[in-house]
Write a structure and sequence with these properties.
alpha/beta; TIM Barrel; 12-stranded mixed β-sheet; 11 helices; globular; Aldolase_TIM
């Protein structure tokens, strides 16, 4: 029997999120400060060859699904080359990308040809001026063009990530739900998380995703659970009666999904994170080339993976059992 990445709580890990850069061409309010970020120099980032070697080892341990993240992954030059390398690894079945959509439209065909299977595009507002404020300068037209490009090259499902923020974009919930009625997309509402925040701003903006279902009912829409959306993530999926698309709720705080967590993360500088929220990290770079040592490192990471992330405790100002990370979301890869 081959070894598999099973932790002490019996969770099987077949999904790896790989950050390819901590840099981004935007400065979204929930992800990065407007200024003052210090980025890793290029020589500290894992090379495409190093990433491929790690994934090759993990494929032998049962990893089947990959997601490339950042920062903004398309800031990394020649990302198509990495996707092509990863798609050739025996056992890898799915390669997805999370992007802000600014650069995606012009590269969609090359990414698809290289082996990209799915895409998630961030879209936190449907209003051009508000979108620019949230992203600190983003052009919504380029993002909408990228959604069309993803349709055109045959990527499916297309998921749109919406970080819901009280007093900022919660008045657009109905507009996003209407979008799922009219178009074959999945809108994923995501709760605002305290990743890398040392202040209480996120608490003031936090809104539980039960609000989405309440707004749906107020509009008279009947939403039923839907299991037809393919993906690796933790969303609770719904489809409004007669809708072409669907919507998902990712609520790590109000209804955390840790008991079914199947994912590990590698940061752009080569640190394995067993949990998004906690500070524990294991640097894999010095072990690359020694398959047994890489395997051992990932099993050590799994050995300390906690049962849950305790973000709800942070919201309530309660004591926590571990040390939360000080890395920003862009430095982790989400």
């Amino acid at each position: 029997m081959p070894k598999l990445l099973v932790d002490r709580f019996g969770r099987m890990h077949d999904y790896l999120r790989i950050s390819v850069t901590d840099r981004c061409n935007l400065r979204c309010v929930y992800c990065m400060p407007e200024e003052g970020m210090e980025f890793e120099p290029e020589e500290r980032l894992l090379t495409f060859e190093e990433i491929t070697e790690v994934v090759r080892v993990l494929a032998g341990l049962g990893v089947r699904k990959l997601r490339l993240t950042g920062g903004e992954p398309l800031v990394r030059k020649n990302l198509e080359q990495l996707i092509g390398m990863l798609s050739q690894i025996p056992g890898i079945e799915d390669i997805a990308l999370t992007t802000n959509g600014i650069y995606f439209a012009s590269r969609a065909e090359k990414l698809r040809a290289a082996g990209l299977t799915r895409v998630n595009i961030s879209l936190d507002s449907l209003k051009a001026d508000r979108f620019s404020l949230i992203t600190r300068g983003g052009d919504i037209r380029r993002v909408l063009d990228s959604i069309e490009a993803a349709h055109r090259v045959g990527l499916s499902p297309i998921k749109l990530n919406v970080v819901l923020m009280k007093g900022i974009n919660d008045d657009e919930i109905e507009d996003f739900l209407q979008m799922t009625i009219d178009r074959p997309v999945q809108v994923r509402f995501i709760e605002y998380m305290p990743i890398g925040h040392q202040d209480d701003i996120w608490k003031n903006r936090y809104l539980p995703l039960s609000t989405v279902l309440e707004r749906c009912a107020e509009k008279g829409w009947t939403a039923a659970p839907s299991e037809s959306v393919y993906g690796n993530g933790p969303s609770q999926n719904f489809r409004i009666e007669g809708a072409l698309g669907s919507f998902g709720l990712i609520h790590p705080i109000s209804d955390h999904f840790c008991e079914t967590c199947n994912r590990l993360r590698i940061t752009a500088d080569g640190n394995v994170k067993p949990c998004l929220y906690w500070s524990d990290e294991f640097n894999v770079r010095k072990y690359i080339g020694d398959d047994a040592a890489v395997e051992d490192l990932f099993f050590r990471a799994l050995d300390i993976k906690p049962q849950n992330h305790e973000m709800a405790e942070a919201l309530m100002n309660q004591d926590q059992s571990h040390t939360p990370t000080l890395r920003r979301m862009s430095q982790i890869g989400g």
